[in-house]
Specification:
CATH architecture of the largest domain: 3-Layer(bba) Sandwich
Number of helices: 10
Shape: globular
Largest sheet: 9 strands, mixed
Radius of gyration: 21 Å
Number of domains: 2
Order of helices and strands: EHEEHEHEHEEHEEEEEHEEHHEEEHEEEH
CATH topology of the largest domain: FAD/NAD(P)-binding domain
Length: about 375
């Protein structure tokens, strides 16, 4: 995805509502097609799930069919973005899901039997092969499911880097501190009463909704998911891949059915919060660890220590003593299509003539964002 203009939207004005990864990638895609773009963001800088995650581009666990196809396309687009905008810090680092027993290894072996295993770049490696590729890993594991296509960006700086690249075109205007309170045909209205009209309007406001924005989602098949994450002190070494625990097999659709069949029930506390370990080293050396799949509880603002205690213990058991103390913690909430109510990968709704609402990609939004934006402007 390059800002070299292909002119399919030349002469059009596109308004994007939302400064997170979905909104920003839509702005970038519209610019790449020759449009003039205005992007509105409620806060001065995005503060939602797009900057509270690992920066993982996670191909390995995606559901078969359309979701995997989109992830593979998005992975190519992210790599191209990394070439065009080095500031996003794209890294083709791959991932290891560390396996400790026969049952976990059997889940991985079943995954290798799927027809799309080669396309997704997965393979099963012995402990010795894993340690050669990622020498920091010194914990208790026997083997690992490797995904060569998994990758990373620096989520807390990537959106700013993309905005700076867009500003340089002279066809992009970023307007922070503008909350959408209404819409009409071909336009949205912000809290100051200003109308932002365009030939096309795309609304990507994420999970932090109130008032009018909340009304747009009330009848949709969505669920809110709360995550708990933390960052450790600098590692002092290079964690060459992303790392996941085998508990993650329970929570990603590619592996979930086999994991629920073969693995014993998760410990009750871990199951309550939906705990898994994901670990990704940041460019500054600290390691982001998490996360949970806890249903959002309205009105609950506390961040209990127990989920992160379990995550940190798993990180030290699997990765080893290199994982140091936690320097900071945070929580977040994202919107996700509820698989019990819909098989859509994400929601796309025309809410007024010329106004498109896009949501529900949470938990995979960072991975899929370039492909979703591409679909919007095909």
């Amino acid at each position: 995805m390059s800002l070299d203009v292909d002119a399919t939207l030349e002469g059009q004005h596109v308004v994007i509502v939302g400064g997170g990864v979905l909104g920003t990638l839509h702005a970038y895609a519209a610019l790449a097609r020759g449009a003039e773009v205005t992007q509105l963001e409620r806060d001065q800088v995005p503060a939602g799930a797009s900057v509270r995650n690992f920066g993982l581009l996670w191909v390995s666990g995606r559901a078969p069919g359309r979701e995997t196809d989109m992830a593979l396309r998005a992975r190519l687009l992210w790599e191209a973005l990394g070439d065009d905008v080095p500031g996003i810090k794209f890294r083709a680092n791959g991932s290891f899901t560390l396996l400790t027993n026969d049952e976990e290894i059997e889940v991985a072996q079943r995954a290798l039997e799927h027809p799309d295993a080669v396309a997704r770049g997965i393979s099963l490696m012995s402990r010795d092969e894993v340690v050669v590729r990622n020498p920091v890993l010194r914990g208790n594991f026997r083997a690992a499911l490797h995904c060569a296509l998994d990758a990373a960006i620096e989520s807390r700086i990537a959106l700013a880097a993309l905005r700076h690249a867009m500003i340089a075109t002279g066809r992009y205007r970023y307007q922070p501190g503008r909350e959408m309170i209404g819409l009409r045909e071909g336009a949205v209205i912000d809290h100051r009463g200003e109308v932002h009209a365009g030939d096309r309007v795309v609304v990507c406001v994420g999970a932090y909704l109130s008032g009018f924005a909340r009304e747009l989602f009330e009848s949709e098949p969505l669920r809110s998911v709360r995550l708990h994450m933390a960052e450790t002190e600098p590692l002092g070494d290079n964690l060459t891949t992303a790392v996941a625990s085998a508990d993650s097999l329970r929570y990603y659709p590619r592996y979930r059915d086999d994991a629920l069949e073969l693995l014993p029930e998760q410990e009750s506390g871990a199951a309550h919060y939906g705990v898994q370990l994901l670990a990704q080293q940041r460019c500054h050396g600290g390691v982001t660890i998490g996360d949970t799949h806890e249903g959002e509880r309205p009105g609950v603002f506390d961040a209990p220590d127990r989920p992160m205690d379990m995550i940190l213990a798993t990180a030290r058991a699997l990765i080893g003593p290199a994982i140091g103390r936690i320097e900071r913690r945070w929580t977040g909430v994202y919107h996700q299509v509820d698989p019990a109510r819909s098989d859509e990968v994400y929601l796309r709704r025309e809410v007024a003539r010329g106004v498109t609402l896009i949501t529900g990609a949470g938990g995979r939004g960072m991975t899929l964002a370039p492909a979703i934006a591409e679909e919007s402007f095909q």
